[in-house]
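Why this split exists: single-chain examples teach little about how molecules sit against one another. For that reason, every record in the complexes split bundles all components of an assembly together and asks for one structure covering all of them. Below is a record exactly as it appears in the raw files.
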Amino acid sequence: MKYLHLTDEQIQQFVLEKANCTDEIIEHVEACTYCKERAEEYNLLFQGIQQQEKPVFDFDLADLVLQQLPKSQTHPSSEKWSSLLIIFISTLFFCVIGYLFGKNLVILFGGISPVFVGLIITTVISIFVFLYIDMNKSYHAKMKALNF
Amino acid sequence: MVADQPLVEMVLKGNTNAFKTIMKNTEDLVAQIVFKMIPIAEDRKDIAQDIYLKTFQKLNTFQFRSKLSTWIAQIAYNTCFSYLEKKKLIFPGNDIDDNGQGEHLLEVLHNKVAPVKNETENIIFQKELSGILKSEIDKLSPVYKTLITLYHNEELSYSEIGEITSLPEGTVKSYLFRARKTLRNNLLLTYKKEAL
């Protein structure tokens, strides 16, 4: 049997998880009035905490939140249709350009060496790639700022 | 009660009533966190709304690795914590009475006050205790108050509390131990001051 009083941690463990306590701790609490009283104090404390009134919001939270829900998420198909519309308009634009100025473009690029054409195409693609990476980064940074 | 997965799927398909059900199922837990962490009553309304708007925005990323209520509680805790950081309302360790100075006084007081003996005395003691306890809990730091509430009122496990607060299980246990000790010491001092 322990002759020193139990530590606070052991007393808490005795009150909350008696099944996990060693026989030494249990025997000590049963025999020692001082530690028994401390255990009883913790017991009362925990009962007191459990009896505390639960806080309740004094407004209808569900109604307030539902009014603010973004409509885009409740109608996911509208986002899909707007993307398709943008793609269609872009394709139409390039087709019209090709139809109206196709011959001129062939003449324009026909006079330039293939290496130079390759260089122009590479530059344009590179600029688009950098722009895409930048937009993507900024999008994720904004989303992160919106979240916790 | 409808399980988490069908509810989440319904919300993602555009059913706002399913989201209302999720809110009703988790509002008590969220209220506990918000009330314990946000000391300014006027700010609680905005924060509570913010928590559920974030939940709605991020619902498609929920992986069902934990209970939905735990995940929402995590969002609530993080939102409140960010608020406290912004307002500079976090004072870590300001409520820890671990230097042992109070211990001696406690022991003296412990021996002076007679223990509660009968049922009537016990009821009176419980009533008095409840009032004093409420004010003593309010004096703890927001994080300690929340940990105490999640463990003793919401009866969550150490691992669930760890998930909500992003603290290791060992840290949760240690913080809870210190919070309870502080609470017991302060409570005893206040109660016995009044009794003497």
